[in-house]
Amino acid sequence: MVTLTPLEIGLGLVVLVLLAGIVALVVRNRQRANLRSKFGPEYSRTVEEVGSSRKAEAELQEREKRVASFSLRRLSPQQVDMFTDGWMKVQNQFVDDPQGAVSRADVLLTEVMEARGYPIVDFDRRSADLSVDHPEVVQNYRSAHDIAIRHARGEADTEDLRQAMIHYRALFEELVHEPGEPNGASHIPRSSRFGETDYGRRDLH
Question: Residue 88: is it exposed, middle or buried by C-beta count within 10 angstroms (0-12/13-18/19+)?
């Protein structure tokens, strides 16, 4: 039987503590890298918003857990057709009623989210929930919402509203058309998309 001296026992404990610290650091760095990769610019935005990487990571992990509890589902072909038709009507409305079109686009997106299984709560929670699976376009949603608020205060013009429609469309297409759709095809005709033609441009200032 080997008898360890108090010094040897102490050194062994120090080594164990150091190893545990190294393992914890590796795990934390891996988690951080995974969150950075998954959330992209949303990671940096959250760090800036909450003030530290650790708090931001806790917030993003909490979002992941919350969204994992949702019963999210794909839209049926009938729902895809219905929502796409609704979006085309919104685009056509923009020509004569930009403000009304932007308001309707926001409502339509809320309807799509509800159909997909997202809880319909306040805007900040909706955007946070969307950031888990749609981190690249959730900022479009926030930007469009900000423009709508500024317009209500008289601080945004028609060109701003057109940009809001472009932002809303980016999220709409991602929510309605899942990855893996054949050829990545969109149900919105290319010739009618905001920003790819001069559609919707009128000097209504």
Answer: middle
DSSP 45: H
**Distances from the Cα of 123 to the Cαs of 60, 72, 119, 128, 201, in angstroms?**
17, 18, 11, 8, 28
Burial of 157 (0-12, 13-18, 19+ CB in 10 A): middle
Q: Give the SS3 label for residue 106.
A: helix
Nearest to 170 by CA among 142, 129, 200: 142
Residue 59 has pLDDT above 60, yes or no: yes
CB atoms within 10 A of CB 159: 14
Q: Which two tokens stand for residue 91?
A: 């685009």
The answer to whether the predicted template modeling score (pTM) of the entire model surpasses 0.90 is no
Tens digits of residue pLDDT in 166-198:
999 999 999 998 654 443 344 454 434 444 434
Say if residue 202's pLDDT is above 70: no
Three-state DSSP at 153 gives coil
Please report the pLDDT score of residue 185 as a whole number: 41
Report the C-alpha gap between 202 and 205 in whole angstroms. Answer: 9
Per-residue pLDDT at 104 exceeds 90:
yes
Six-digit token string for 21: 């610290």
200: alpha, beta or left? (left if phi > 0; alpha if psi -120 to 50): left
